[in-house]
Amino acid sequence: MLFTENRKQKTENPLRRVIFTADDFGLAPALNAAVAEAQGHGLLRCAALMVTGPYAAQAMDMARDLPGLCLGVHLTLIQGRAVLPPRHLPHLTDSQGNFSSNPVTTGWRYFFQPHLLPEIRRELAAQIEAALTAGLAIRHLNSHLNLHLHPKILPVVAELAREYGIPAVRLAREDWRATLALAPDRPVPKVVQGLIFAWLSRRARRLVRAAGLQANDHLFGLLNDGRMTEPYLTGLIPRLKPGVTEIYCHPGLYPDPELDRWGPRYRRQEEFAALVSSDLKAALAASGVEVGDYCDLVWMEPGE
After folding, report:
1. Neighbours of 47 (CB within 10 A)
2. What sign does the dihedral 91-95-98-102 (CA atoms) show?
3. What whole-number distance in Å separates Cα of residue 35 and Cα of residue 62?
4. Number of H helices, E strands in the chain
5. Rounded distance, CA 155 to CA 9, Å?
């Protein structure tokens, strides 16, 4: 069973575990099909459902037929649509129910306009309830662009996780040095983003622990987003640290205009190929890295 080790346990038993997650489940048929196909090959065991995605209903139908898939909700407050109608979110969305698409201005707006928080809470609760009402078991929460780690939004997410009995929340602490060693392009943005999310994740871990929730220790997928290819993942194996590392990806089974619109430079079919690669699976096993999911994650408090 997976667990997050405390410092003493990591020293005595430097076990490395990895969770592969497909984000944006529900965004497009090609991504949905990639999740369904890859889930049966042993590496991909988690998916994060975008309930506001245009093909969310298809994803939900697929999830019901994939009992081994550990499902989460990919909370959306940017670059997407709301579940609730615009009249319930007069300050959060436009008249068509769309969120802002600009990450920087949105982040500052959510920080400096606290009157938005009640609307944010209503919308996030509605997204979780949409998945639960569909009869799906939800075991973890993350978000589009990892916005759930925003200092004003994380307390809301933690509260909702406890309220709805969802045990785990993603943290986005990525080792930017390891990423740059394997993907040295755009070094300055990667370092800056890595440092920002490391700070956010340190703060978030305290809140997550105080709420009695579970979380991953490390993560990859943030700084080399859309390029979780087999060579990259193979290079990560010796760089994985003790504890639980989540690796999130955005696979596609075949070319899809909707996916190209959202991530024109993403290498989605290569990501899918990595998730079903017997060579990658064998390399992980040979290095003693266990593959698991959030459904097996158990929090171990310090001193236990």
Report:
1. 33
2. negative
3. 9
4. 12, 10
5. 29
Q: What is the DSSP string of 211-225?
A: TT-B--SEEESSTTT
**Residue range 197-244, pLDDT digits in tens:** 999 999 999 999 999 999 999 999 999 999 999 999 999 999 999 999
Which residue from 40, 4, 30 is spatially nearest to 281, judged by alpha carbons?
A: 40
- Please check whether residue 256 is in contact with residue 29, taking contact to mean a CB–CB distance below 8 angstroms: yes
Q: Are the CB atoms for 26 and 59 separated by under 8 Å?
A: yes
Structure tokens belonging to residue 187:
């070094």
Q: Which residue reads 């994060």 in tokens?
A: 48
Angle at alpha carbon of residue 98, lines to 94 and 99, rounded to 5°: 90
pTM: 0.92
With contact defined as beta carbons under 8 Å apart, do 147 and 107 qualify? yes
Rounded Cα gap, residues 102 and 174, in angstroms: 23
In the numeric block, which tokens belong to residue 107?
A: 């982040």
Return phi, psi of residue 285, to 5°: -65, -40
3-299 under CATH 3.20.20.370, yes or no: yes
How far is the CA of 197 from the CAs of 51, 167, 225, 236, 270, in angstroms?
25, 21, 14, 19, 26
- Where are the chain's structural domains? 3-299
In this predicted structure, the answer to whether residue 192 has a pLDDT above a threshold of 80 is yes
Full 3-state SS string of 90-152: CCCCCCCCECCCCHHHHHHHHHHCHHHHHHHHHHHHHHHHHHHHCCCCCCEEEEHHHHHHCCC
What is the CB neighbour count within 10 angstroms for residue 61? 12
